[in-house]
Design goal:
This protein is mainly alpha-helical. The chain has a domain at 20-67. It contains 5 helices and no strands. The protein has helices at residues 7-15, 25-32, 43-86, 89-109, 118-122. The longest helix is centred in the middle third of the chain and has 44 residues, at 43-86. The radius of gyration is 33 Å and the shape is elongated. The two termini are 50 Å apart.
């Protein structure tokens, strides 16, 4: 069956009495969507904060369980390993070459900011 003529049904639907919406419906919708305050921390910031807190708790536990001398000895060993790694001549030369390349490229190509907005979408 093919019902192409739905005029009677449309008239019946439009004749139904509708309930009035609450007076503050628009304001409550806008408050819940557009005007909702931004969250205090993003997900990445929460993860970073949790990681920092975990490291601090681990360090406090290490000091409490092993005493201060073990903690100081661990920091000295970490510092010595870092100094030994960073005193490698080839590492310093490669870091200098990379930094010089980055500076050279930024000088000769210029700093090109990202274009955003309507002008970028039209192109």
């Amino acid at each position: 069956m093919n019902f192409d003529n739905d005029d009677a049904l449309d008239r019946a639907l439009f004749a139904l009495p509708l309930e009035e919406p609450p007076a503050d419906l628009r304001a409550s919708i806008l408050t819940a969507t557009i005007y909702r305050p931004a969250p205090v921390f993003s997900f990445r910031e929460l993860v970073a904060l949790a990681a920092v807190c975990a490291v601090v708790v681990w360090l406090v536990a290490a000091v409490v369980l092993g005493g201060g001398s073990l903690f100081v000895h661990s920091l000295q060993a970490l510092g010595a390993a870092t100094l030994r790694g960073l005193s490698n001549t080839s590492l310093v030369l490669w870091a200098a070459a990379g930094g010089a390349t980055a500076i050279w490229l930024s000088i000769f190509t210029g700093f090109q900011p990202r274009t955003e907005g309507k002008a970028a979408r039209r192109r």
